[in-house]
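Form P-L/3: holo structure prediction, ligand NAP.
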Amino acid sequence: MIIVTGANGQLGRMVTERLLERVPAREIGVSVRDVDAAQDLGAKGVRVRMGDFTGPATLAHAFEGASKVLIVSTDSTGETAVRHHRTAVEAAAKAGAQRILYTSHMGSNPSSPFPPMPDHAATEEALRQSGVPFTSLRNGFYASSAVMLISAALETGVLAAPEDGPVAWTAHTDLADAAVLALTGETLTDAAPDGVTPALTGPEAIDMAGIADILTRLTGRPIRRVVVSDADYRARLLSAGLPEHAADMLVGLFAASRDGDFAPADPTLADLLGRPTVRMEDYLKSALAPAR
Ligand SMILES: NC(=O)c1ccc[n+]([C@@H]2O[C@H](COP(=O)([O-])OP(=O)(O)OC[C@H]3O[C@@H](n4cnc5c(N)ncnc54)[C@H](OP(=O)(O)O)[C@@H]3O)[C@@H](O)[C@H]2O)c1
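OUTPUT (holo model):
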């Protein structure tokens, strides 16, 4: 049985729905915190069990009979995230899984200034120590994250952010398809002989100036890229009501991007899927369609 965690979240749900096109429903189990929210999957024959990374006993039940487990990283950071992921890795090993898959991130690095990156690096270490064959999917930067970074610019016409570097923006749909391939075949073991995949990214790395150009084309209104200091950006975020940890996270994101941690684009994902990956301009065109 293939187990997918986080199946009520965006990526986990997409993976599960795409898995259903390739694998009989009775061979798929989801581990979710809210079983009611996954009723539609249950109706299709998927085994739905409650599993919370804060409760190892719930995971023992949710992962029962697992041959492979896809651990979708949780939306926490720091010690909490690492504790969640370690608990899930241990539970998958105890359940007898023959392979553990994990949604890591390009730029996973113990000393990155972007807080989720050391968390992913620590989880990859836990995977190495588990003794179970694993595939750490080094997912590219979500294209959807850019939509959050540009929302103010769409109002003001000014994309104000710290100095940055190019980012290989990547669509959830492409990453979900890659996870399905990794769960249903051995395709990714060739690309990741030591368990860690190359960066799985969209086709091009684009910096904030490039994003401003795309927005200008898509909206027909000039969107100007303005570089502000880290301190100024942080102050603006705080005055807009963001909590400190969220502001620090975004400042860290720009620091890591200007170090080149989210570039370059890598052909592995397109090669794996056997088709071109989603271009950022096309992604933004559909994401912004209702707003334009
Ligand atoms: N590659 C990137 O650029 C990028 C960007 C942002 C985030 N990420 C990572 O990718 C992950 C998946 O992305 P997404 O878009 O699917 O995010 P999402 O929709 O926010 O999903 C996060 C999932 O984590 C689950 N979760 C949270 N706490 C949990 C716990 N204690 N036990 C078990 N599950 C728990 C949530 O469960 P519920 O549905 O029950 O809430 C949810 O399904 C994120 O969580 C984050 O780690 C990657």
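COMMENT: DSSP finds 13 helices and ten strands in the chain.
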